[in-house]
Design brief:
single chain; alpha/beta; 11 helices
């Protein structure tokens, strides 16, 4: 009889958010595959629970190698609990590879629902939540980051990102360049922790704020692209830009000025004007 994979959502900051079921699974699972064994120890101390199963490290550096070992344990009937540092495993955290292999071997997979930085950030952002997508971490290098955001510039759904605090200002500057300076966003910092903070505003404004060194865990929520009515406005703006260029003004300068006035993306205006020329 095969075992079962259990993805365990853990608190993202406040241990009081742990569910009774999480406590039970920590105490009874036969194998605990853990992103950071030291963090697990601290969490168990706060929850006053003592794991009885084997504790194995399972993180980005050994996930590929350890997954086959865990599959063998599952096929032998073990109940394997996946525990990452915070939130739901497999969402920008280890877990996906094991789930994929478990599915391939017809091994049951379930999860312990619980805290999620993605959903909490959406809920408190003040932005539309009826449709959204999760984009994880953007590329670290500026060129790759800009290209990734250029592909998302027309995305209509609200977008959620994770970002390292020391790269937040650069991310916001890239957002302002690709999406326009007035595109609305919310930076959610240290969710559920003592110094929880949510900053809302245009991405250019948030870039200036982030330049003063932001600390802590960061989740960024960004409004989707404007609707069809705004597309018609964009056509009118593009036509006005073309007329100014025909009168002798430099296209790049006009696009930058209009972007500052309208909140539209300077790059989008530039490319659209070139297409119409």
């Amino acid at each position: 009889m095969t075992g079962q994979v259990v993805l365990a959502a853990t608190p993202i900051g406040d241990a009081r958010d742990a569910s009774p079921r999480l406590v039970h699974e920590l105490a009874t699972a036969s194998v605990l595959a853990v992103e950071d064994t030291r963090r697990l120890r601290r969490l168990c101390e706060r929850l006053d629970v003592v794991p009885t199963g084997r504790v194995l490290s399972y993180h980005e550096h050994n996930e590929t190698r350890r997954t086959p070992e865990l599959v063998e344990m599952l096929l032998a009937g073990e109940r394997v609990l996946i525990v990452t540092d915070a939130g739901m495993p497999s969402v920008s955290d280890p877990g996906y590879r094991l789930v994929a292999e478990a599915v391939r071997h017809d091994i049951p997979v379930t999860c312990v629902p619980g805290p999620s930085a993605v959903l909490m950030a959406l809920a408190v952002s003040g932005l539309p939540v009826d449709r959204f997508c999760f984009e994880g971490f953007l590329p670290r290098k500026a060129g790759a980051r800009s290209r990734a955001l250029a592909e998302l510039a027309s995305e209509r759904r609200t977008m959620v990102f994770f970002e390292a605090p020391h790269r937040l200002a650069a991310m916001m500057e890239s957002l302002a360049e690709q999406f326009g300076p007035q595109r609305q966003a919310a930076v959610c910092r240290e969710l559920t922790k003592t110094y929880e903070e949510v900053r809302r505003g245009g991405v250019a404004e948030l870039a200036e704020w982030a330049a003063d060194e932001v600390r802590g865990e960061v989740t960024v929520v960004v409004a989707g692209a404007p609707s069809g009515d705004d597309d018609r406005d964009l056509e009118a703006v593009t036509e006005a830009i073309r007329e100014r260029v025909e009168d002798g003004e430099r296209l790049k300068d006009v696009c930058r000025e209009v972007a500052g006035q309208t909140g539209l993306s300077s790059r989008q205006l530039y490319e659209r004007a070139l297409q119409r020329s």
